[in-house]
UniProtKB/TrEMBL annotation:
Keywords: ATP-binding, Cytoplasm, DNA synthesis, Kinase, Metal-binding, Nucleotide-binding, Transferase, Zinc. It comes from Glaciecola nitratireducens (strain JCM 12485 / KCTC 12276 / FR1064). Zn(2+) binds at residues 145, 147, 182, 185. It is found in: Cytoplasm. GO terms for biological process: DNA biosynthetic process; thymidine metabolic process. The active site is at residue 88. This is Thymidine kinase. It is an enzyme of class 2 (transferase). ATP binds at residues 9-16, 87-90.
Length: 193
């Protein structure tokens, strides 16, 4: 039975690595899969899912306008799709999460979505909010704060390396711009109230 899975974490927990490993397992068994990643994150090249440890794979791009259900229906018309993988799933819209539910229920294709739980202010992204609410299975991938505790927040850094609490929700970047922190260290630097 197909289900919608959401694998979430703070940055640097290995979400893309985990996605690429799972995708490889399907391909190794001769199964057809489809991969999508957010068009706005092209740090490693356009149309590519890449991990910090060097794994990568070509992927379809999605924007807020992409109809994932229509795209997957076209793919299913060509051949049997065993799984849909979505990287940077926090950037999905509410409508696209609904489309993922339709992919699971109508097309009977499992959807494995990977993304952040919260932004640099501690607020959920639209995609994360609805994936956390509607996914059949939730799985947290863990990473650590500099103190060794579980990091479940992401702080955005200014050019001096100091955490900031103002700005647009989306500002694509990596370790030069963000750091994962435990709640204690996050709230010391970025007050939630």
């Amino acid at each position: 039975m197909a289900q919608l899975y959401y694998y979430y974490s703070a940055m640097n927990a290995g979400k893309s690595t985990s996605l690429l490993q799972s995708a490889y397992n399907y391909k190794e068994r001769g199964m057809h899969i489809t991969l999508f990643t957010a068009a706005l994150d092209n740090r490693y090249g356009e149309g590519k899912i890449a991990s910090r440890i060097g794994l990568e794979s070509p992927a379809n791009l999605f924007t807020s306008e992409t109809d994932l259900f229509a795209e997957m229906r076209k793919e299913c018309d060509k051949h049997k799709i065993s799984c849909l993988f979505i990287d940077e799933a926090q950037f999905l819209t509410k409508q696209q999460v609904i489309q993922c539910l339709k992919i699971v229920d109508a097309l009977k294709v499992p959807v494995l979505a990977y993304g952040l739980r919260t932004d640099f202010k501690g607020d959920t992204f639209e995609g994360s909010q609805y994936l956390l609410a509607w996914a059949d299975k939730l799985s947290e991938l863990k990473t650590v704060c500099h103190c060794g505790r579980k990091a479940n927040f992401v702080a955005r850094l200014d050019i001096n390396g100091d955490p900031i609490s103002e700005g647009a929700q989306v500002d694509v970047g990596g370790n030069e711009k963000y750091v994962s922190l435990c709640r204690k260290h996050f709230t010391e630097k970025v007050p939630l109230l």
